[in-house]
Specification:
5-stranded mixed beta sheet; alpha/beta; about 280 residues; about 40% helix
């Protein structure tokens, strides 16, 4: 394949299989054979893919921990007229991976970026979930920070759209408990794992049902969690703080281990009230 003879090179975002190698596109393989360099999130994993298809190509690592220095290196090559393909561990680059930073660098440096589309784990799980695909929101990975997780989940608890999350097996049980606190145990959920592989599994249940299942079953493999959107007909559950004053509400979070600043922010989210107003009310009390 011949690339256009531009002064600068092109960055190709190449989607690779999320499981079944048969899902790789002919165009993706053609691009991988033709570029000057492949930037891979995990060079060992990408090398397995290249070996399977008989592709010999220079590889460099590009991941969360070296994206600043390696990004500058890749931009330099592209500016010199080299063509680069970027791939993630699996699926489409720039979705919940540092590829998005590389795209921004290319745009800032007037370098052409194009996508070679293919598998996306989140969309694959969404269409298998049985939930509405008319409106959905990709929420990605939850933070490991307890407060940030709380803020993230409560901010989307009443969202009418179908929600898509990614989660690692060792954090699944904790995440399900956090989701129960935010969404309620009766909210429907689909848990998808091993997508496109021999042992593909999609469990369709409630959050309570998932918690019960994984109290006995060990989570294995990377998960996509698809949460049904909040129902317009549902009456919101009574909150624990309904009968509390603002001061009592803040003090409750402080007694749970939050520092005052964090507690005031959490209360402002709960009550959908500006943080400044919560701060003033608390200190007046």
């Amino acid at each position: 394949m011949k690339f256009m003879a531009d002064e600068k090179g092109t960055l190709y975002l190449c989607a690779t299989p999320i499981g079944n190698l048969g899902d790789v596109s002919a165009r993706c393989l053609e691009i991988l054979r033709s570029v000057d360099l492949i930037a891979a999130e995990d060079t060992r994993r990408t090398l397995q893919l290249l070996n399977h298809f008989g592709i010999t190509k220079a590889l460099t690592s590009y991941h969360e921990h070296n994206k600043q220095s390696k990004g500058e290196y890749i931009i330099k090559l592209l500016s010199e007229g080299k063509n680069v393909a970027q791939v993630s561990d699996a699926g489409t680059p720039a979705i919940s991976d540092p590829g998005e930073d590389l795209v921004r660098l290319c745009i800032e440096n007037d370098i052409t970026v194009t996508s070679v589309p293919g598998p996306v784990a989140g969309i694959t799980a969404l269409i298998l979930s049985g939930f509405s695909t008319m409106r959905y929101a990709f929420e990605g990975f939850l933070s490991v920070n307890k407060r940030h997780r709380y803020e993230h989940l409560t901010s989307v608890a009443n969202d009418k759209r179908t929600l898509i999350f990614y989660e690692a097996p060792h954090k699944l049980r904790t995440t399900l408990e956090d989701m129960k606190s935010a969404f309620g145990g009766e909210r429907r959920i689909a848990l998808a794992r091993e997508l496109t592989k021999l042992h593909e599994e999609v469990i369709r249940t409630t959050i309570d049902g998932a918690i019960a299942l994984y109290s006995e079953k060990t989570p294995r493999g990377e998960y996509v969690l698809v949460i049904e959107g909040a129902s317009e007909q549902e009456e919101p559950e009574e909150c624990f703080w309904t009968d509390m004053t603002v001061s009592e509400h803040v003090d409750k979070y402080i007694s749970d281990g939050m520092i005052p600043k964090e507690a005031i922010k959490a209360v402002s989210i709960d009550r959908n009230t500006p943080k400044r107003d919560i701060y003033n009310e608390y200190h007046r009390g």
